[in-house]
Amino acid sequence: MRRVFGVKKDKEPPPSVQDAAERINKRGDTVDEKVKKLDIELARYKEQIKKTRPGPAQEAIKARAMRILKQKRMYEGQREMIYNQTFNLDQVSFATEGIKDAQNTMAALKSANKELKGSLKTMKIEDIDNMQDEMMDLMDISTEIQDSLGRSYSVPDDIDEDELMGELDALEADMGSETQTDGVPAYLQPDKESDLDSELNLPSAPSGRATVPQANQQTTDEFGLPTVPRASLRT
Fold first, then answer.
1. How many angstroms separate the CA atoms of 136 and 82, rounded?
2. Longest Cα pair distance anywhere in the chain, in angstroms?
3. Which of 101, 124, 190, 207 has a Cα at 20 to 30 A from 222?
């Protein structure tokens, strides 16, 4: 059957907006190049017309310039048409991209809506309120426990403000009587009557200077004991 009737050819997919825009832009670039070349030729003919005297030669140059100018106008018309086509394709491409973005946004919103509904099914406002109330009760119980554990023992609770101020005044008076003019408390100052040196009658510390013993005078050592002459120690 394929040999008799042949095989149906697959149709090529239509060109996309981007493909059509690229093709038209290439045509526009080609037309721009042609217009630039014609501008160069027109500038050359303009210089020749200025340098040539009026006559047949100048008229021939003007005829060539007119022909080039007509070609330029034709290409400029084509370029304007190409620009309009490109603008239309850009508008279509922008609208197409906007529709695709809207479709993606709708799909994302639908997915988020479905997920949100599934999450809300497992959560109820009554359960949240009950949990908050229970947490407040637990915090109150915890505060009561801390207060109970932090109570002081054997501390009177019936002290009034007048009694407290009296105690503070008495304490301040006691501290003032113990403080001397130099700012040192009395209990930190030395007591002359209880001087240990005078009670024990200890000898004073040696001054470090040696004394020469006089004749018939008994000397003592640093501890207050009589010293023995060196001569008596010899055998």
1. 75
2. 168
3. 190
Average pLDDT over every residue of 96-123: 89
Are the beta carbons of 68 and 48 closer than 8 angstroms?
A: no
Sole residue written with tokens 């359960």: 127
Instruction: Say if residue 31 is exposed, middle or buried (CB neighbours under 10 Å; 0-12, 13-18, 19+).
Output: buried
The two three-digit tokens of residue 215, written as one number = 């004749």
If you average pLDDT over residues 122-138, what whole number do you get? 88
Whether the CB-CB separation of 210 and 227 falls below 8 Å is answered with no
Rounded CA-CA distance 207/108 in Å is 103
What are the phi and psi torsion angles at 179 (to 5°)? -95, 130
Find where tokens 């002081």 sit. 152
Interatomic CA distance for residues 71 and 58, integer angstroms: 20
* Percent of the chain scoring above 90 in pLDDT: 12
SS (H, E, C) the chain: CHHHHCCCCCCCCCCCHHHHHHHHHHHHHHHHHHHHHHHHHHHHHHHHHHHCCCCHHHHHHHHHHHHHHHHHHHHHHHHHHHHHHHHHHHHHHHHHHHHHHHHHHHHHHHHHHHHHHHHHHCCCHHHHHHHHHHHHHHHHHHHHHHHHHCCCCCCCCCCCHHHHHHHHHHHHHHHHHHECCCCCEHHHCCCCCCCHHHHHCCCCCCCCCCCCCCCCCCCECCCCCECCCCHHHCC
